[in-house]
């Protein structure tokens, strides 16, 4: 990694300090940041956990070198690995309850097999380690575990040296496999970001706020196609480079100003690609470490949301962003830009009186309204009959969820994004019925076999505990996506094709479907009335009274009070009127296997799918990383 940072002077747009209004509102932002710092007890517990993990790894490496490679004790004592923190903990912007991303860089001869079989089993013996899972088939394989109540994601890489230095330079990556390069680069990227920002304190404050804003506005989830922690960190760092003398309030203002203008929601229509964000002197880098992002390569140049990692080989940290995600991101950048422009002229007292305890920052952080905000919804249900496999299956399906709206390279022209009159409003939140969660927690657990990488595996629920009908008990995760249709649309829109592509992708990519254990996600169209009550409760939504109720659109109730129509249902004929498929008062059920189902006396129209389609990610698109608790990929949260 280069130490020459003279190019940063050319990156500066303005070296001015904060303006008067930015100084005025800085205090309330600092107050908000102070509320995010974890309690000292939890901070001490984190440090204790990291120290214990480090000691276990140190002893494990020493014992492996002696027992497996017959190395003398003295020589084995000179072999040393190193554990690095990445993500929010590395930037010191973590919050109470957040997890820690860690990378173990091991010396030569220590393999990934040692990591998953021996080290994982060693961790499983510790009484303070719970819920240990090895996720070995993801793009960045990890051991996911809960250590003394703190979620840990530990990935692995190895270099061709007996001692791992503090700084992982480019030459140390030569000859490594792709997974080791990715793991090492998570460390290198975190180091480079901190090295390339001019004011680390302002960077941390701004990043802490932007991450909270992204979560509150439902645009923070790598698996759902939004930027992950590393993506947001790069976006914030770039603005810090452009305005090196700003305070945090001024930096947040320029964050929205920059990206409201930078990213356009329709690059494919205009033919003008969105420009890449990069922190280094150039976005091009000669390397022998595999593919590095290249603006001359069409697949790279046409990326919708290119945010480049600052360590060779360069890669797009936001490769998962689809056209639907891009629209939503641009909407939120504009909202932030408008709020800052209209609210910063207020005094701090006026802003507090108008918006809440932190003034303009309270307004920016308002949770995005969702339930009851759109006329129609897609309700996805992902189910698994085995408590032990439920988490992994749901994480796997979630990592492929974006295929539902963006499709694959083989399905262009028939995806949801290709319906010009249809728009999906994404919500990355996963909902679970509290009663199911309690029942799953009571499932008896049996100790894992010696050397197993999965600790305390819950037994599969038997039919004896499955319910009165003696059938299988399904554990289900729910997702709710908003759905709007252009009022000028005059023809029926059939979503059976995109759903079939989604199902085929799950069957071909996950390899996790087992008869009676897992099943394809159920996708149905519904209105607010038919969203499960526990989801409404989780969102704090209260049903409006039936008398005088009005239909609601994306910006609230329709002015004319007439019932909205949707063309987004199925290939069935129920509710058809004037060329539209009207959203029936009862939910429309869309399922890949076709046929009609009756439940509780209500007819449900089912999309009849033809033959199977081909699924897969576009050429060059890596598989998203999943984790035991629904985390994100790309080396950051």
TrEMBL record:
Residues 202-342 form the Poly(A) polymerase central domain. Residues 444-468, 539-637 are annotated as: Disordered. ATP binds at residues 95, 99-101, 153, 211, 220. Residues 370-537 form the Poly(A) polymerase RNA-binding domain. Residues 452-465 have a biased composition (Polar residues). Keywords: ATP-binding, Magnesium, Metal-binding, mRNA processing, Nucleotide-binding, Nucleus, Transferase. One of its GO terms (molecular function) is poly(A) RNA polymerase activity. Coiled coil: none annotated. Residues 13-197 form the Poly(A) polymerase nucleotidyltransferase domain. PANTHER family: POLY A POLYMERASE, POLY(A) POLYMERASE. Belongs to the poly(A) polymerase family. Polymerase that creates the 3'-poly(A) tail of mRNA's. This is Poly(A) polymerase.
